[in-house]
Amino acid sequence: MSAPPSASAPAKAPALDLDVEHLFTAEELNWRDRVRQFTARHITPVADADFEDRHFRSELVRGLGELGVLGMHIEGYGCAGAGAVSYGLACMELEAGDTSWRTFVSVQGSLAMSAIAKWGSPEQKERWLPDMASGRTVGCFALTEPDGGSDPAAMRTFARRDGGDWVINGAKRWIGLGSVADVAVVWAATEEGVRGFLVPTGTPGFTARDITNKLSLRASVQCDVVLDDCRVPADAVLPLATGLRGPFSCLNEARYGIVWGVLGPARECLRAAVERSRDRRVFGKPLAAFQLTQQKIADMAVEYQKGLLLALHIGRLKDAGGLTPAQISVGKLNNVRESLEIARTVRTVLGGDGVTSDFPVMRHMANLESVRTYEGTDEVHALVIGQTLTGHRAFA
């Protein structure tokens, strides 16, 4: 970090991260800048209003497709085939605007599209992936159930064979995009183990109902899904996925995006704290001139910078093909936890104004509470790390 300016030096815009620009390639920085511009133009100006109104701005979906971020890590089928670090930077910039839009990209690309790309047949890939990459088709990923998202092995949704078809019965909860999706990747227990099914959402017996009483992710769509004798043909099965390895591989893609994504809100909250503390005067001097304020800002800046370097390290491991699930858990556990703590601390710097929409902090804080829960709670990731370190499985 550069030395602080002298008392007579003109104030400059605060530098929120270490000198990391040289650690990224030109292609990675191009992705970052393009997504940053999209966010600044289409997401940030309406984020507070959409959060207040519980409004999912569906017209942005095609724009995200044109931007190339839907399934951007996938090769072929109209997808960008971008590297892991490029995808991470895109997630960070989207979530700097609002978590709902990084969530959309995660559900569409890291979950639904990844399931088809990893485990689908050539025909399934050709049918679905190009339109999903362009934003003409929206997908959802139906894994979590009402009785426990952290225990998918206890899945109650069941698919049985009936002649040449499959008939699915069960319920799912907290399914992102369920009511706006055109196709659902539904995971169900079968006599052969857990299988994935591509279920067009217009199929009789498939019902999605929005969860409307959320105090977080209000500009996003999460649903309860019911499958009542939902009949699909034999070719709806993802042929290469049997067991929980299929959905878990997709969850790891989404968790990786979160490692980067949550740094966006952390950065924007930290920026608000620095700028407001410089402008606001109390007891005859700027709030920024008080030692306790500087201690808070310094601690937050250190944690943000550490999180960014951790994300970059994990991204390089992923690009090299050497990333493990436990390493993803380290990133998800640390960066979500620290980003949420940054948001909470910034709120104290802003005082009473911090609870208003004059600043994005309370919105980011509320959204991060959801991110702390989905794609694995803190407790689940701690146990993944603990098992890796000790060799003992502590899951129930």
From TrEMBL:
<dbReference type="InterPro" id="IPR013786">
    <property type="entry name" value="AcylCoA_DH/ox_N"/>
</dbReference>
<comment type="pathway">
    <text>Amino-acid metabolism; lysine degradation.</text>
</comment>
<dbReference type="InterPro" id="IPR046373">
    <property type="entry name" value="Acyl-CoA_Oxase/DH_mid-dom_sf"/>
</dbReference>
<dbReference type="InterPro" id="IPR009075">
    <property type="entry name" value="AcylCo_DH/oxidase_C"/>
</dbReference>
<comment type="pathway">
    <text>Amino-acid metabolism; tryptophan metabolism.</text>
</comment>
<keyword id="KW-0274">FAD</keyword>
<dbReference type="InterPro" id="IPR009100">
    <property type="entry name" value="AcylCoA_DH/oxidase_NM_dom_sf"/>
</dbReference>
<dbReference type="Pfam" id="PF02770">
    <property type="entry name" value="Acyl-CoA_dh_M"/>
</dbReference>
<feature type="domain" description="Acyl-CoA oxidase/dehydrogenase middle">
    <location>
        <begin position="140"/>
        <end position="230"/>
    </location>
</feature>
<keyword id="KW-0285">Flavoprotein</keyword>
<comment type="similarity">
    <text>Belongs to the acyl-CoA dehydrogenase family.</text>
</comment>
<dbReference type="InterPro" id="IPR052033">
    <property type="entry name" value="Glutaryl-CoA_DH_mitochondrial"/>
</dbReference>
<feature type="domain" description="Acyl-CoA dehydrogenase/oxidase C-terminal">
    <location>
        <begin position="244"/>
        <end position="389"/>
    </location>
</feature>
<dbReference type="InterPro" id="IPR006091">
    <property type="entry name" value="Acyl-CoA_Oxase/DH_mid-dom"/>
</dbReference>
<dbReference type="Pfam" id="PF00441">
    <property type="entry name" value="Acyl-CoA_dh_1"/>
</dbReference>
<dbReference type="Pfam" id="PF02771">
    <property type="entry name" value="Acyl-CoA_dh_N"/>
</dbReference>
<protein>
    <recommendedName>
        <fullName>glutaryl-CoA dehydrogenase (ETF)</fullName>
        <ecNumber>1.3.8.6</ecNumber>
    </recommendedName>
</protein>
<keyword id="KW-0560">Oxidoreductase</keyword>
<feature type="domain" description="Acyl-CoA dehydrogenase/oxidase N-terminal">
    <location>
        <begin position="25"/>
        <end position="135"/>
    </location>
</feature>
<dbReference type="InterPro" id="IPR037069">
    <property type="entry name" value="AcylCoA_DH/ox_N_sf"/>
</dbReference>
<dbReference type="InterPro" id="IPR006089">
    <property type="entry name" value="Acyl-CoA_DH_CS"/>
</dbReference>
<keyword id="KW-0809">Transit peptide</keyword>
<dbReference type="InterPro" id="IPR036250">
    <property type="entry name" value="AcylCo_DH-like_C"/>
</dbReference>
